[in-house]
Amino acid sequence: MEITGNLNLVGYGLASIGSAIGVGLIFAAYINGVARQPEAQRILQPIALLGFALAEALAILGLVFAFVL
Hints:
Pfam families: ATP-synt_C. By secondary structure, the chain is mostly helical. It has one domain (about 15-69): F1FO ATP Synthase. Helices cover about 85% and strands about 0% of the residues. It contains two helices and no strands. Helix 1 (about 10-35) packs antiparallel against helix 2 (about 40-69). The longest helix is centred in the N-terminal third of the chain and has 29 residues, at about 10-35. The radius of gyration is 17 Å and the shape is elongated.
């Protein structure tokens, strides 16, 4: 039995787990911050969305590299 192919998509799958954990931590910190100080929601929300966008951008970039390589 011979196995052919590459492990790019397996590597992307493992990398996307890290991105999912990062997004969870970002929103957990946001919810915790708003629960402690509700008046800070307008300040914390853009920061949380920026962190979410950056974490997801890294995951999408990994997907692109998995298909390119």
